[in-house]
Amino acid sequence: MSIIKPDIDVLLEDCENDRFLLCTVASKRAHDINDMMSGQRDRAIQLETAVEIATAANVKPLSMAFEEIARDDISFDRSSIDLTQGQ
């Protein structure tokens, strides 16, 4: 039984079965999502109710990134990703 949604096997298939590539792609996308959410926060407060904002904030950026990877909503250029960074 997997507690990760979507299933880790699906995510790995979408990232060439490379767990380091999956982590890199997901973290970069989650960072982008977090930046977008932060930038839109002030505007959302003006346009939406507190309940709508709380519902949207309930999903974490990394979870959103994993869902996008599983749906093939994002793509990546492997040659532009440095998997040796930090070593």
Describe the structure.
The protein has 87 residues and is an all-alpha fold. The protein contains 4 helices and no strands. The radius of gyration is 15 Å and the shape is elongated. The termini are far apart. The mean pLDDT is 77.
Number of strands: 0
Mean pLDDT: 77
Low-confidence stretches: none
Strand content: under 5%
Q: Give the fraction of residues assigned to helices.
A: 55-70%
Rg estimate, integer Å: 15 Å
Order of helical and strand elements: HHHH
Distance between the termini: 33 Å
Instruction: Give me the number of helical elements.
Output: 4
Main beta sheet: none
Shape: elongated
Give me the secondary-structure category. Answer: mainly alpha
